[in-house]
């Protein structure tokens, strides 16, 4: 079957949770080429099913034939990356289209970048976390920006729906509210994973740093509470946090209202200094909080964000954080050569009152 343009290939992958085959769509942009059928006279995608990939046969025939059919066309490199990504059982980043025949950007004599070793010993192309053979250089920066902004927009929509449905009410435990938010994310956006633990903290628990795990607590009338979740929308991470007051306590309302103001002041400091480092912005956040009458409550004020999982170089302890010790410019390529994008976090404490608040979202985008 000849296709003028291959857009979506439906393959059947073995489910890790059960002995059945699950359908997984993968979008690939490619030049025209002939697709081999999985069976004589049966086009790929029409009737290709379990009989084409019996238990124990890996890779499934649709994958093998799609890879073989690509041959030496201009789609070969993309198909090869797709084939290896299927083996890795990882999501594939969307590809930015490049007109046929257009060379890759950069000087023609540029030496290939060294490939990092993985625990399995297979080479990994820098810029493609967990995906063997598919370089992130094929994903344009504009696509990354759109992905991150879209993920944050969905996170904001999730929080709006949490409020609309009245999930943050006295008498519910923090864990129960967290579970309902998880279920709502799945209902609204099909979210199946969060890249960090979900946090719902109320009353005195709001003082605890992120890494602590206070015991479950029943939310009380008059509490201040905050929600901090990191849903993964497709392959894009979001990280979003907001604070709520159940009542009208003026001290708690004042802290809640101060959070976005301190965030905005921190963003202005970032925008005003093109060479700002992580440790300089952290110091500025602490200064801004103190000037507003609050204690800053965390050892860092943000971190990198991106495709799941975001960049965390093992040899750079502070590099992924807006924190003391990170003396590198925040506007820099990450370890895979992509632009760094940041989440800014604000954790303000009122120790005398015994409560705190939290606010976070994208710093350099939006």
TrEMBL record:
<dbReference type="InterPro" id="IPR036005">
    <property type="entry name" value="Creatinase/aminopeptidase-like"/>
</dbReference>
<dbReference type="Pfam" id="PF00557">
    <property type="entry name" value="Peptidase_M24"/>
</dbReference>
<feature type="domain" description="Peptidase M24">
    <location>
        <begin position="151"/>
        <end position="331"/>
    </location>
</feature>
<dbReference type="InterPro" id="IPR050659">
    <property type="entry name" value="Peptidase_M24B"/>
</dbReference>
<dbReference type="InterPro" id="IPR000994">
    <property type="entry name" value="Pept_M24"/>
</dbReference>
<protein>
    <recommendedName>
        <fullName>Peptidase M24 domain-containing protein</fullName>
    </recommendedName>
</protein>
<feature type="region of interest" description="Disordered">
    <location>
        <begin position="96"/>
        <end position="129"/>
    </location>
</feature>
């Amino acid at each position: 079957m000849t296709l003028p343009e291959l857009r979506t290939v439906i393959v059947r992958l073995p489910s890790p949770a059960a002995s059945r085959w699950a359908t997984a769509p993968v979008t690939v942009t490619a030049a025209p080429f002939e697709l081999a059928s999985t069976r004589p006279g049966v086009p790929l995608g029409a009737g290709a099913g379990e009989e084409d990939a019996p238990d124990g046969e890996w890779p499934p025939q649709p994958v093998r034939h799609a890879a073989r059919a690509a041959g030496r066309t201009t789609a070969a490199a993309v198909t090869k990356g797709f084939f290896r990504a299927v083996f890795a059982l990882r999501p594939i980043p969307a590809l930015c289209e490049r007109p046929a025949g257009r060379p890759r950007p950069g000087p023609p004599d540029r030496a290939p970048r060294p490939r990092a070793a993985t625990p399995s010993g297979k080479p990994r192309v820098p810029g493609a976390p967990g995906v063997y053979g598919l370089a992130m250089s094929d994903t344009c920066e504009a696509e990354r920006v759109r992905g991150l902004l879209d993920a944050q927009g969905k996170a904001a929509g999730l929080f709006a729906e949490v409020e609309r449905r009245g999930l943050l009410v006295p008498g519910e435990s923090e864990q129960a509210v967290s579970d309902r938010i998880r279920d709502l994310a799945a209902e609204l956006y099909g979210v199946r994973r969060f890249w960090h633990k979900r946090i719902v903290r109320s009353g005195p628990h709001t003082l605890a740093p992120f890494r602590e795990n206070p015991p479950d607590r029943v939310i009380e009338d008059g509490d201040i509470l905050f929600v901090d979740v990191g849903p993964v929308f497709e392959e894009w991470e979001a990280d979003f946090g907001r604070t709520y007051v159940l009542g009208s306590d003026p001290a708690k309302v004042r802290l809640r209202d101060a959070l976005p103001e301190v965030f905005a002041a921190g963003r202005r400091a970032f925008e005003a200094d093109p060479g700002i480092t992580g440790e300089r912005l952290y110091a500025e956040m602490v200064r801004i909080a103190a000037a507003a009458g609050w204690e800053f409550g965390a050892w860092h004020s943000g971190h990198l964000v991106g495709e799941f999982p975001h960049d965390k170089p093992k040899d750079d302890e502070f590099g992924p954080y807006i924190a003391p010790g990170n003396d590198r410019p925040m506007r820099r390529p990450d370890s895979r050569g992509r632009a760094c994008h940041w989440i800014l976090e604000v954790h303000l404490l009122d120790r005398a009152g015994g409560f705190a608040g939290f606010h976070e979202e994208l710093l350099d985008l939006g």
